[in-house]
Design the sequence.
């Protein structure tokens, strides 16, 4: 056996779910550097909230590439972040009842936000609104 | 055999015995600050992400609904928050790379503390130009 290793993050678990979780943090983290920083530069620096409105989003989601990009980012960031919140719950919430409650809220949030986020990104159809507004003669 | 076993770069500096810097009362142990910041920034970005999923969901309700909501994001308080959010994300990303390097690369594990200084340098190199551009866009 070698000496215990210095780590800046969590120690690598021996196996099971916690080991997958450990690898998932690291792999999704590396992908998120690319996804989230590209997103910040495009949506907060090159463009800003002054330019971004519904038409901007409709244009952007005209491209399957950006839909796929946004959906992948949503999926990875949500699971990475909520899995991190799980670690925090495990650290701070000690009593059994509150732990069950906290984990229930957490996993419900995971499902609900994944579903509404996926609906938003994948089912958005700008033509429905554009047709409606031109039918109204605007 | 006592001092030799301390890996280089970890608390090997001799503490001053005089003045303000001699105060050793409350000092976080090595690595605690980087860890606490990693956790706080991670949870902070998560909180924003949840809010952001809700507002993006409203895009599907059409231009009227969505555009009416945008006044929120254009409010100065929100725009300051936006800059803080970017700061949190950049720190978390840079420190995340440090964690991963130390996990998989033995030599990096010896330079844990120096890598933390590198994280601060990378953070500032990324954040300062971003913040300047964002503040400039806000003022014009
Ligand atoms: C940008 C690239 C990112 C990288 C490189 C990254 C890296 C990491 C790594 C390696 C860990 C595991 C730490 C450990 O095992 O001790 C971690 C934890 C965490 N991350 Fe990220 N992450 C990134 C983005 C995000 C985003 C976008 C969020 C929020 C939605 C987030 C939220 C969290 C949280 C809450 C934790 C748990 C911290 C703890 O309780 O110890 N991260 N991150």
Sequence:
């Amino acid at each position: 056996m070698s000496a215990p290793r210095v780590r800046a993050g969590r120690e690598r678990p021996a196996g099971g779910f916690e080991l997958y979780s450990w690898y998932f943090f690291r792999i999704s983290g590396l992908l998120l550097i690319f996804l989230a920083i590209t997103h910040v530069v495009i949506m907060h620096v090159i463009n800003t909230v002054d330019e971004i409105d519904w038409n901007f989003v409709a244009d952007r989601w005209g491209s399957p590439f950006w839909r796929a990009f946004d959906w992948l980012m949503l999926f990875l960031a949500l699971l990475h972040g909520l899995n991190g919140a799980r670690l925090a719950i495990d650290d701070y919430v000690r009593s059994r009842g509150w732990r069950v409650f906290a984990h229930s809220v957490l996993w419900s949030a995971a499902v609900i936000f994944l579903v509404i986020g996926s609906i938003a990104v994948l089912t958005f159809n700008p033509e429905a609104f554009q047709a409606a507004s031109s039918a109204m003669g605007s | 055999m006592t001092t030799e076993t301390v890996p280089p770069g970890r608390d090997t500096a001799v503490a001053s015995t005089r003045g303000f810097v001699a105060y050793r009362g409350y000092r976080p142990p090595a690595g605690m600050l980087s860890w606490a910041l990693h956790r706080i920034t991670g949870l902070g970005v998560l909180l924003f992400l949840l809010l952001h999923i809700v507002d993006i969901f409203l895009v599907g309700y059409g231009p009227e609904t969505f555009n009416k909501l945008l006044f929120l994001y254009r409010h100065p308080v929100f725009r300051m928050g936006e800059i803080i959010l970017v700061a949190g994300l950049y720190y978390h990303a840079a420190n995340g790379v440090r964690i991963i390097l130390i996990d998989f690369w033995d030599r990096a594990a010896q330079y844990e503390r120096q890598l933390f200084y590198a994280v601060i340098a990378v953070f500032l190199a990324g954040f300062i130009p971003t913040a300047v551009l964002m503040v400039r866009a806000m003022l014009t």
